[in-house]
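Intended use. Records like the one below are meant for learning the mapping from a protein sequence to its folded structure. Do not use them to infer anything beyond what is encoded.
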Amino acid sequence: MTLTAPSSTPGIAGAVDVFDAAPQHEQVVFAQDPESGLRAVIAIHSTALGPALGGTRFFPYASTADAVADVLDLSRGMTYKAALAGLDLGGGKAVIVGDPAEMRARGGQEALFRAYGRFIASLGGRYVTACDVGTFSEDMDLVARECAHVTGRTVAHGGAGDSSVLTAFGVHRGMRAAARFAWGSPDLAGRRVGVSGVGKVGRHLVELLLKDGADVVVTDVAAAALDRVRDEHPEVTVVGSTEALLASALDVYAPCALGHAITPEVAATLSARIVCGAANNQLAAPGVAETLLARDVVYAPDYCVNAGGLIQVADELDPSGFRFERAEQRATGIEATTYAVLEAAAQDGVSPAVAADRLAERRIREVGRLRGLWLA
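Structure written out for the chain above:
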């Protein structure tokens, strides 16, 4: 299939064949149900370690090509995230093209998510879904009415509930590891931490940082999210834009919204000593990680520190059923993994992004099933 994309689309420019755009992906599925309005793309990057687990993003993409570019990047990241977290899972992701607010306003969620669930079922367990931007645990309950290959359901339906809780927990643990590496102590008390994006994950992260005694400054494109933080934590400083946040003096920058937050310009001018946040695919261009390294900025790789949510929903797949305490205990390991990545990068003279990839790829090679393709 050939897609025509604007030249500004990351990873896809002009007319591009999907096979060329996704040379390492096992499978890319386009799903459409006109009656419900469903238009989705499911990308399975790798099942070498097990079935591909990854959330469903619901977003008003400007074009199908933009949606494909995003799902290809995100699914690859899930493979590396699962491998580095020590899970017996592969990497996949799905995106639904559309406006989730408009869909919910007209009450179309049951029809859409049940149709989506039937498409997931058709993959026979090779892809297991969960929540992501624009989707919620209640949506996964609807998907579960049509297929068994879904996690992140509500607690009432036997699921893990809101995975943003352990996502934020893991980012906080990764931030402690980065602080230890940068300053010799994991203590964040008195450190000025800028959080860009205080939605599901960022909001929980703010609470953890305040408990540590950090000085927190936040921003978000959604006024409602900022109002909620003001109401809950009046001691937090709120600024009107990411540009204003980046212009202030920071010790730690935590991108917790959409990807590509660390552009070459940001990398060259950032005041923070540490970059550690929940957003996926934070590095916007080749060479950004090297720019951070040259400026002695400690980058905690995104897929390393934000794996807590994956760990949480993956626990639903345990035959004994979900246990939050078990998932939380496993997520504490993110701190040690992050520090190991930073140490390996320093020893090898490479960026943490390269070091994290190497560690993940080594596990995929050494532990990956010999058949290389997971079948139910």
